[in-house]
Design goal:
The structure is a homodimer. Chain A has about 375 residues and is α/β, with parallel strands linked by helices. Helices cover about 40% and strands about 10% of the residues of chain A.
Chain lengths: ~375, ~375
């Protein structure tokens, strides 16, 4: 009944992104994305949580917002208020929390409230691709601030803010992922947190704190959060069933689940670092991240990791090129991000070996295995 | 650690909507929104579906997109492809379906692909508030097309398209809810569907078909869909657990659940119409909707339903004023939309009685019960 083809070309809005590539399944060795370890999904407990909460409250699914209104399922917000106080030192009420459909929706909401084309923000020079692409699409100037082993360089933040002030520009926010930074895995020191807050007040620039991986720290200890919150959500609520099941599960099991997961993740990180040391030797530089699911790696300058990614994909290995995770192309050009949570231990070892072969073939590094200098463990 | 107050006033983006009102719980008699009947939520079967799918595939929750990629959980898309073919005559593959976080996200995606500020679209004069407010916020001209008992007036569509052509304007789409229209409950006739498609091809204007309530038809029979589809979703996927449970449930139970739900809804509609006839007499005009969860009512011209809504809320009755569901304020001024699915049968009767009292107090109509002329049943 519908016409077989309709030409949409004259109708598209301006400045659309290119069409998405068709998904062709998972590569054999998948080091991309923020996926986690399938072995650690607490399936039995999720089943029990789903059964319990549906039996008790399932009929409330008839109503948008359940019986909780537009901020999200109340028991989930209450769990979070308690958890944030306990782990991050954030004192807030359940009604100061908004449940969103993923952190990307939260980014969109904050950006929607604060940003207009031509605005300026400060962002870690190496940061979350999702945040970087959104700023680019919004036409916002993202001033990249370097990081070191203790996270965001607050001296560089101070210099950037002074420079903007001289030019009559007020940044709309400082976006930071201070606790298990993505992609570097660093943790912003307490001293720098205080310094960042001081700069925020002095220059009247709010801090947009993203605490995505803050629960996944090897030693389980984290500094208090910087914290800030905002909202203008125009949908009819985030997934209701998921909020109910999550709240039910977390109320009983969050505090034992997280340490167990974290131990498993640490073990996989060790496997990845050993494999890189064995296969790449001194060609691969990285610091031990303090937690999380990612390792941020620097290869020799001769290596273009975007080209490496294309060649590796043909061999079944998927990696995230550093260019997509940096405010400056040149900085990210020889870097790559590897997610170690999702692939199995064996896949990690094999995948890294294949990656080394591809890299050698394309760029001449690392040298052959017998000649690989062993990287001294940090 | 964070400063006690931070002045955001100088930082807000331009043209923000006003802050949302704080949610204060449900009114005693809630006729607003698209909520459904709590008694018809198939709780036991949802529990069984959740248990089964988690046991079988729960560990895939570790991966964004499960094992299905970015279009959404494959078994859900496969169920939908089969269901759309069977019920709506739509021939499409699972890979031509994108699962979104509610229909509002779908609206946002289509609008994002096609619309720029200053564009023009055609829309039913009485339509979905969510669609109307989005178009207003986007700065798009929404040309309202009248409806009658057979839905969208295609002669008026033809006239509007000719008029736009004379003015050198091409509409970006014709947005229609042809099968159980929101708010009127009408169904676009087959003849008009063919006519609309012909106009679409002639003027090269696509049809944006919204089939939200098309499954909830009293006699279970519906005309084939008009159908069209598009996507540029930048989040990490819609709620995974919900898609899994929904697919599991629907595979076994969709075809018996829907007729049962529909019978219950029809009974509630009868209750509402009887209550309106009893309390409002000829002051309340409405046509029998062919299905769905809403009744669209016209009160005498002297009644301003936005003021009525405010007064009624104070008395515990919530209604949707027609102004929010019309392209023209004047047209919607004395109309209101009532959702009959969510309140109980008793709440429907009591709520309508309270509403009539409030209306009489504020506007002098309807006359007192003893004097109410009985409305002839259509």
């Amino acid at each position: 009944m519908a016409s077989a083809s309709f030409d949409f070309a004259p109708l598209w809005a301006p400045s659309l992104p290119p069409p998405a590539a068709k998904w062709t399944g998972f590569p054999k060795y998948n080091f991309t994305g923020g996926n986690n370890d399938a072995d650690h999904v607490p399936v039995d407990r999720l089943m029990a949580a789903a059964t319990a909460v549906l039996a008790r409250e399932g009929s409330t699914l008839a109503t948008y917002g359940l019986e909780s209104g537009p901020l999200g399922y109340r028991p989930l917000r209450e769990f979070l208020a308690g958890k944030l106080k306990r782990t991050a030192g954030i004192a807030c009420t359940a009604d100061e929390i908004l449940i969103t459909s993923g952190s990307l929706q939260a980014l969109d909401l904050v950006n929607g409230a604060l940003l207009a084309r031509g605005d300026t923000v400060l962002i870690e020079q190496e940061s979350y691709q999702g945040a970087l692409t959104r700023l680019a699409r919004l036409g916002v100037n993202a001033v990249g601030i370097p990081l070191d082993r203790d996270g965001l360089r607050t001296d560089a933040v101070a210099a950037a803010l002074d420079d903007l002030k001289r030019r009559g520009i007020r940044a709309k926010y400082i976006y930071t992922i201070p606790t298990v930074q993505n992609p570097t895995g660093t943790i912003l020191s307490e001293q720098r947190r205080h310094e960042l807050l001081r700069l925020s007040e002095q220059h009247h620039v709010p801090i947009f704190e993203d605490d995505c991986y803050a629960d996944l720290i090897w030693d389980g200890r984290r500094p208090a959060a910087l914290y800030a919150i905002l909202a203008l959500k125009t949908d009819a609520g985030s997934g209701a069933l998921e909020q109910m099941v999550l709240a039910e599960f977390c109320a009983s099991h969050f505090t034992d689940h997280v340490p167990r997961l974290t131990r498993g993740l640490r073990a996989k990180l060790e496997t990845l670092m050993e494999a890189l040391a064995e296969q790449f030797g001194t060609s691969a530089e990285f610091d031990d991240p303090k937690g999380g699911i990612f390792l941020w790696v620097k290869l020799p300058d001769a290596v273009d990791t975007q080209k490496l990614a294309q060649a590796a994909l043909a061999a079944g290995v998927a990696i995230n090129p550093g260019r997509d995770w940096s405010t400056q192309e040149a900085y990210g050009k020889s870097r790559l991000r590897l997610c170690f949570a999702n692939p199995s231990t064996q896949a990690i070892r094999e995948g890294v070996a294949v990656l080394a072969d591809v890299c050698r073939r394309e760029f001449g590094v690392p040298q052959r295995i017998a000649n690989v200098e062993r990287r001294a463990r940090a």
